[in-house]
């Protein structure tokens, strides 16, 4: 069996060395967490708490659990085979990779638009420019960071930003438990289980914890990480599980913040990106103090900016790899850059179309993600149960059962949403 940590020739590796080795091995899982803790957490989880209190906490945990097998496929398949998920799709047939690439292209443009507008909205707290112009600045900055910094800089930067946001959010929630109740007299919390709320529920679950195609990013990031440091199967799975656990727990933390500070106050999040950003930072400053407003704003901005960079990098890498495998051409940095520029340009066009309406854009993107999730989930399940994979690396009975439950849930809500749209 491979050892999780290196051993000294004379004595066991010290706790400090083990910790340093563990942190150095982290990367793809943390990047996945950074991609998740964007719109799904800052927006959906916080909004769920603000509108429905704690009622949707169990739903968030259930969604994370039911999607786990499909996300885990990225790390497990690559660790077992040394290849990306996209190589696996192609081995099953060209049509599988074409299907993935087609849906991934649509998701790339829509998701880039969503996270970019959210970043631009946060940036309005510091720069008095239009949200469209700020979106252009965000996109150009993201591309420059990726072109000149590559994976190494993205890996290091994300770890620091994630740590800062996690600490500040945990502190804010801890303090929020001690503030006086914000509920207005006679307030009755509405149930989320009403027919009119189906759209919101599907949108929340679409990016909770992230779109399932993110599993392919994790696969490619793991291969990139292995270029600079050997990663064992155990390390790859540990890294993924650690990042996934963080996303699930922080989703509840953000819901708690919305519930404790906003639920029952009579205030609702604005659809305007500029006003939404101000409302979000106000949630923190109400419990941490007004003097922390700009500090928290900076941390939140850096968090969502890292999400934007991660989204552009992840989608561009998968689109580039898909093109490379389908055309049998060599890898090309120029092609990767061209894909980044194209995705960003089309994403900016969508932002201009929505004219600063942040929540409608994010709901559109999240619903789109949920409706395509069924196919991405099926592709990953097919890979992890294939005879082409070594028997010891395939999903066992427990993961198969969990996968089936996940597929039933995804298909059920997809059908329910379609019926809701038709009868609305």
Offer a few descriptive terms.
Amino acid/polyamine transporter I, disordered N terminus, 15 helices, 424 residues, mainly alpha
Structural features, described:
With 424 residues, this protein is an all-alpha fold. It has a single domain (28-423), classed as Amino acid/polyamine transporter I, CATH 1.20.1740.10. It contains 15 helices and no strands. The protein has helices spanning 15-25, 28-36, 39-52, 57-81, 85-92, 94-123, 131-176, 198-206, 214-226, 233-261, 273-288, 293-327, 333-354, 358-384, 397-423. α2 runs antiparallel to α9, α4 crosses α9 and α7 (131-176) crosses α13. 48% of the residues are buried. One of its GO terms (molecular function) is metal ion transmembrane transporter activity. It is found in: Membrane. Its main location: membrane.
Overall pLDDT metric: 83
CATH class: Mainly Alpha
Q: Specify the biggest β-sheet.
A: none
**How many individual domains?**
1
Could you state the oligomeric state of the chains shown?
single chain
Taken from the alpha-carbon principal axes, the silhouette is: globular
Order of helices and strands: HHHHHHHHHHHHHHH
Unreliable stretches covering 5 or more consecutive residues:
1-13
Give the N-to-C terminal Cα separation: 57 Å
Q: Which fold name corresponds to the CATH topology?
A: Amino acid/polyamine transporter I
CA gyration radius, whole angstroms: 21 Å
Set down the secondary structure blueprint.
Elements: H1 15-25, H2 28-36, H3 39-52, H4 57-81, H5 85-92, H6 94-123, H7 131-176, H8 198-206, H9 214-226, H10 233-261, H11 273-288, H12 293-327, H13 333-354, H14 358-384, H15 397-423
């Amino acid at each position: 069996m491979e050892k999780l940590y290196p051993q000294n020739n004379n004595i066991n590796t010290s706790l400090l060395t083990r910790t340093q080795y563990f942190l150095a091995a982290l990367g793809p899982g943390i990047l996945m967490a950074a991609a998740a803790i964007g719109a799904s957490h800052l927006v959906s989880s916080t909004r769920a708490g603000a509108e429905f209190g704690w009622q949707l906490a169990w739903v968030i945990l259930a969604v994370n659990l039911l999607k786990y097998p499909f996300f885990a496929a990225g790390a497990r398949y690559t660790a077992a085979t040394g290849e990306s998920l996209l190589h696996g799709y192609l081995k099953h047939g060209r049509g599988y990779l074409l299907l993935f690439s087609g849906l991934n292209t649509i998701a790339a443009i829509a998701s880039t638009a969503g996270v970019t507008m959210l970043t631009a909205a946060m940036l309005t707290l510091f720069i008095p420019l239009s949200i469209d112009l700020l979106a252009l600045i965000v996109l150009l900055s993201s591309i420059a960071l990726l072109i000149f910094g590559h994976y190494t800089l993205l890996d290091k930067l994300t770890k620091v930003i994630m740590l800062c946001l996690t600490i500040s959010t945990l502190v804010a929630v801890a303090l929020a438990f001690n503030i006086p109740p914000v509920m207005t007299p006679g307030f009755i919390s509405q149930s989320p289980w009403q027919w009119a709320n189906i759209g919101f529920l599907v949108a929340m679950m679409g990016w909770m914890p992230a779109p399932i195609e993110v599993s392919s990013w994790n696969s490619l990031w793991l291969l990139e990480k292995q270029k600079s440091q050997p990663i064992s199967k155990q390390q790859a799975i540990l890294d993924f599980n650690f990042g996934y656990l963080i996303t699930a727990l922080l989703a509840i933390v953000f819901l708690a913040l919305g519930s404790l500070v906003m639920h029952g106050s009579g205030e609702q999040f604005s659809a305007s990106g500029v006003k939404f950003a101000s409302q979000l930072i106000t949630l923190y400053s109400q419990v941490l103090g007004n003097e922390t407003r700009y500090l928290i704003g900076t941390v939140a901005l850096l968090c969502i900016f890292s999400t934007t960079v991660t989204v552009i990098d992840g989608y561009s890498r998968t689109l580039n790899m898909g093109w490379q495998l389908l055309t049998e051409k060599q890898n090309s940095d120029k092609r990767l850059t061209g894909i980044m520029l194209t995705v960003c340009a089309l994403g900016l066009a969508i932002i201009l179309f929505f004219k600063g309406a942040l929540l409608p854009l994010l709901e559109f993107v999240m619903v789109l993600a949920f409706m395509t999730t069924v196919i991405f989930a099926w592709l990953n399940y097919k890979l992890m149960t294939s005879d082409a994979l070594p028997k010891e690396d395939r999903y066992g009975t427990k993961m198969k059962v969990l996968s089936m439950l996940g597929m039933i849930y995804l298909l059920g809500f997809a059908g329910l949403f379609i019926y809701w749209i038709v009868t609305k």
